[in-house]
Write a structure and sequence with these properties.
The chain is 34% helix and 14% strand. It has 355 residues and is α+β, with helices and mostly antiparallel strands. It folds into two domains: 191 residues, no CATH class; 111 residues, Endonuclease, Chain A, CATH 3.40.960. Strand 1 and strand 2 form a beta hairpin. Helix 4 runs antiparallel to helix 5. The two termini are 36 Å apart.
């Protein structure tokens, strides 16, 4: 593919060798220390970093005219902040997946994943000059190639987090174009468990442990709590309003004096509201038993509490609900700056789980 049409700022477009040295390196220069390879016959200056967007552009030099970038790379290029090209540990790099239809056009190459499967009309779109598969197809590609249910649900939640696609759009695409394809059952099993209002890929993990392993009622996700004077009090990651149990995920971002002080203040607020707070720690990934014990204890304590008063989940007239992809898409730029500040700052950006 000729990548000269890519318009994304912050990336360096690969170039071919040029005997004059004007538009690219001369043959001898291409083998020297000032240039590095960026695909067969393509080069970039040696100082160019190899972050996810640059890797995507360099991988695109291998694309045939009918192909496109897909999977995590297509979602990252489309604005998916949690799809950064790293595995669930946050350390190992994932290859850049290229959708090539079902006719072999490329040989396997390091750093590239060849996705050779039928491409329907309309499956490819263009973002900043780069052909990518529709976000729904990119998500479905990830779901079908991911064994872990927790990871699949986190993929769905984080695709919705950046409003790349809604759960209904993914379902409609999968039903219309993927029925009968290999591993499509992985899509069907994950969709009912996903939610469009998760703010971190660790929240769906906590939610699944809460419901599937703990067998407790399905909690609300990032539901704001107000006092009776219509003031916003707190938004727990998870909330069982019937049984009066709230859940928070406490990752590495909470370490340090100031974050811990804020967390203690939140814990005190939950007690004042008559809610039992249970916290899932990043270390609970290694052994869920401690979290499940704390969760069961929270439910036991909550059952002995008197009925609380002084708070409500009813949203006041001044509040703008942003709990779905459709609602967030309908916001103006000014409204997004006000109501999606947490999403914009990326308060905690842990990796999508690999469990």
């Amino acid at each position: 593919m000729d990548v000269s049409g890519i318009t994304r700022s912050g990336v360096v477009l690969p170039v071919r060798m040029d005997p004059t040295g004007l538009s690219g390196p001369k043959r001898r220069e291409s083998a020297g220390p000032d240039w590095r390879g960026a695909g067969p016959g393509w080069f970039v200056p040696a100082w160019v970093d190899d972050g996810p967007q640059q890797r995507i552009v360099e991988a695109a030099t291998r694309l045939p005219a009918t192909g496109g970038v897909t999977g995590w790379a297509g979602l990252h290029w489309g604005g998916g902040r949690y799809f950064n090209g790293l595995d669930g540990t946050g350390e190992a790099r994932l290859p850049v997946p290229l959708a090539l239809d079902n006719r072999r056009r490329l040989r396997p190459q390091p750093g590239i994943e060849l996705c050779e499967e039928f491409l329907a009309d309309g499956d490819i779109t263009t973002i900043d000059g780069l052909p990518v598969t529709l976000h729904e197809r990119s998500v479905c590609r990830l779901l079908r190639t991911t064994r872990s249910l927790e990871r699949r649900v986190a993929i769905l939640d984080m695709a919705a987090f950046d409003d790349l696609c809604s759960l209904s759009e993914i379902l409609d695409y999968a039903v219309a174009r993927l029925s009968g394809r290999p591993y499509v059952s992985r899509i069907w099993s994950a969709l009912p468990l996903a939610h469009e209002n998760s703010w971190s890929p660790r929240e769906p993990v906590m939610r699944l442990v809460w419901t599937l392993a703990g067998r407790f009622p399905t909690p609300l996700v990032n539901a704001p709590i107000f006092d009776l004077a219509d003031n916003h009090l707190v938004t727990p990651d998870l909330l069982d309003p019937v049984n009066l149990v709230a859940g928070e995920y406490d990752g590495a971002v909470h370490e340090g004096l100031e974050p811990r002080r804020r967390d203690l203040n939140r814990e005190e607020l939950y007690r004042e509201l008559g809610l039992e707070l249970v916290t899932m720690l990043s270390t609970d990934d290694r052994d869920r038993s401690d979290f499940l014990r704390r969760l069961a204890s929270a439910y036991d304590r909550a059952a002995r509490r008197p009925a609380p008063s002084g708070w409500t989940l009813e949203q006041p007239s001044w509040w703008v609900d942003t709990s779905t992809v459709a609602r967030r898409r309908s916001l103006t730029a000014a409204e997004r700056a006000i109501w999606l500040r947490r999403q914009a700052t990326g308060r905690h950006r842990p990796a999508i789980p690999h469990t």
